[in-house]
Amino acid sequence: MKKTTTLIVGCGDIGITLARQLKAQGTSVTGVRRRPEALTEAGIAAVAADVQDAESLAALPDAEVVVYVISADRFEEEAYRAAYPDGLKAVLAEYAGRKRPPKRVFFVSSTSVYAQQAGETVDEHSEVAPHGFSGQLMLEAEQALLAHDLPGTVVRFSGIYGPGRDRLIRQVREGRIAPASPAMYSNRIHRDDCTGVLAHLIDLALADQPLAPLYLASDCEPAPLHEVMQWLADKLRVEPSQVIQSPLRRRASKRCDNALLLESGYRFRYPSFREGYAQVLEAGGFLPTRKG
């Protein structure tokens, strides 16, 4: 069976970007998805498999590192259970039985596992007690990995933004803004830092460096959502005209502490929303043209 260094299960936007970064660093990488045509077109070695089909998982190549970064098909409990705890457990069962099991399995999780809503600072040791099914099933998947015999690390991403992930920008363009009071703290990470974090941790794993079981991956400046949206409004030259109470799917307010990730040696390409959204505004053609 062909040996590959890194296998990315659920190779969508983040997976493809990660694969390109790893390839540029000289790492062998294979992407896995049910319909792999997009990977082939992107020049990435691809395997067709479905995490709900054990027979297709048996055909996956050996790997030193497995990255599980699947997205649920839809925001429904059944879809989340299939994608996260059930799918991850199936992949773990497959690779646990290999003669050459992976050095490390990474599971991409979410800060939805936190229930804090009063502006508290959270880190890897904070209580997790998710209210909704999405956070509960993410947490179940995390626990399955961390209890498994295979070495595993969970990476909890906060709100991901970047190319094609511009909902907040579009809301501001429509004149909408979050209330200034009470302050509702928000946390985010640029898509390119998502892949940067994963590539960094993969490098550590391949170099047999110690890894924590869990990393909170969010940029260096939690910020009130009103402040972020007002900054965007200034850049877009829009005067907000409508205050919206719940611009996020679930109202929450917490501050994510990324100190452990920084201690591991990672340096953010976009350490705050200002650098990151400046890139998205420029690349996406959102900025108004200057007259004269």
TrEMBL record:
It holds the Pfam family NAD_binding_10. Residues 12-165 form the NAD(P)-binding domain. PANTHER family: NAD(P)-BINDING DOMAIN-CONTAINING PROTEIN-RELATED (PTHR48079:SF6), PROTEIN YEEZ (PTHR48079). This is SDR family oxidoreductase. It comes from Bisbaumannia pacifica.
